[in-house]
Inverse folding.
């Protein structure tokens, strides 16, 4: 009997597709099962309805904030728990795909917000977030990705850095007033310290600018990419480090990112798809073909094995503490719709120089609307 041909959907960055394509070639050689991969943009990775993707593909690479909607729609198949799960999970990556006591994806890519620097241009960044409030343009040669979704993620991380990481804060406030105003004030300071066009930049834009020019030396908070720590990937190699903390605190809690691989509930080849998903998330594959082809592994043992590997030490060692302490965003059904509306209004906060307190009122009004439409926290 002919082996099946499966269809997969991932995201359009070397970190998102080269590793899966190479792993799939190896899997086909070993099993005879072919997986053809399509790609979608980074923005579509965050926005595209998972149900539509599940109708067209057997395997879907996704991020964990979707799991509430996935569980509600049942568009993906729950997966069996992996063997040696305790050895696998890094910074809560595996747990982030758990919802309603079921596992909806296996982690294949681990990431969180961290600081990035050009070691040849600077020793480090500001000692704490308060230093940024007093900094002047040109200090630290700093740049921050402030595309709306990244600005909102950073706002949440700043709030978490004040000890408020169990979001939402209450039924009336997504974040508390004092912490929310402080976080927005820091974001406004970062906007003034960097180029104005950073309101349109995502982490890749910032990393490209840092790795291909000498204009910027430090970025305090973005989702890290292993590719930029590899020698030869770009003209300049980047190093990764812990986030700043608030003065008098050692708390450094970046938002968990990364990606998992799920299996469509509508697939005609679910058993084969589940086998591949478990295989590509396993340590031998993560430490081998996946890492060797631009992948950013999620397996904890892969990170441990490669901390002193000169090809990756600028990422695995520099980012490990941050990754171990990453925290997970809300994943409730209402959350993604709330994020969409927040992102629609966030540019005005910077461009029109809106008051932080008034803008926080707007965010909390949007939050209350979406909570009423969806599940209460």
């Amino acid at each position: 009997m002919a082996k099946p041909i499966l269809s997969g959907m991932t995201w359009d960055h070397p970190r998102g597709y080269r590793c899966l394509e190479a792993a799939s070639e190896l899997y086909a050689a070993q099993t005879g099962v072919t997986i053809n991969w399509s790609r979608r943009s980074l923005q579509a990775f965050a926005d595209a309805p998972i149900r539509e993707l599940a109708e067209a593909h057997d395997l879907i690479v996704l991020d964990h904030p979707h799991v509430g909607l996935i569980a509600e729609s049942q568009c993906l198949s729950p997966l069996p728990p992996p063997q040696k799960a305790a050895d696998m999970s890094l910074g809560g990556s595996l747990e982030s795909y758990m919802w309603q006591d079921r596992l909806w994806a296996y982690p294949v890519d681990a990431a969180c917000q961290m600081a990035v620097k050009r070691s040849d241009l600077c020793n480090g960044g500001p000692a704490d977030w308060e230093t940024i409030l007093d900094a002047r343009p040109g200090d630290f040669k700093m740049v921050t990705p402030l595309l709306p979704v990244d600005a909102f993620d950073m706002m949440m991380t700043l709030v978490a850095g004040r000890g408020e990481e169990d979001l939402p804060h209450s039924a009336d406030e997504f974040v508390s007033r004092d912490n929310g105003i402080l976080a927005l004030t820091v974001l406004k300071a970062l906007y003034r310290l960097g180029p104005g066009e950073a309101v349109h930049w995502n982490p890749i834009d910032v990393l490209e600018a840092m790795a291909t020019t000498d204009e910027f030396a430090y970025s305090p908070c973005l989702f890290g990419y292993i590719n930029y720590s590899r020698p030869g990937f770009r003209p300049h190699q980047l190093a990764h480090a812990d986030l700043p903390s608030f003065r008098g605190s050692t708390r450094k809690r970046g938002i968990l990112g990364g990606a998992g691989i799920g299996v469509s509930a509508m697939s005609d080849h679910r058993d084969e798809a589940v086998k591949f998903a478990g295989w590509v998330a396993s340590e031998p594959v993560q430490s081998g073909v996946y890492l060797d082809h631009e992948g950013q592994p999620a397996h904890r043992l892969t990170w441990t094995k490669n901390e002193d590997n000169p090809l990756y030490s600028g990422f695995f060692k520099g980012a490990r503490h941050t990754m171990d302490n990453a925290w997970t965003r809300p994943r409730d059904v209402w959350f993604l719709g709330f994020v969409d509306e927040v992102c629609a209004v966030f540019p005005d906060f910077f461009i029109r120089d809106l008051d932080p307190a008034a803008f926080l009122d707007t965010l909390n009004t949007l939050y209350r609307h979406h909570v009423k439409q969806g599940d209460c926290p």
About this structure: The chain is about 45% helix and 10% strand. The chain has a mean pLDDT of 93. The beta strands are 5-11, 34-40, 59-62, 98-99, 102-103, 106-109, 113-117, 218-223, 239-241, 259-263. The longest helix spans residues 14-31.
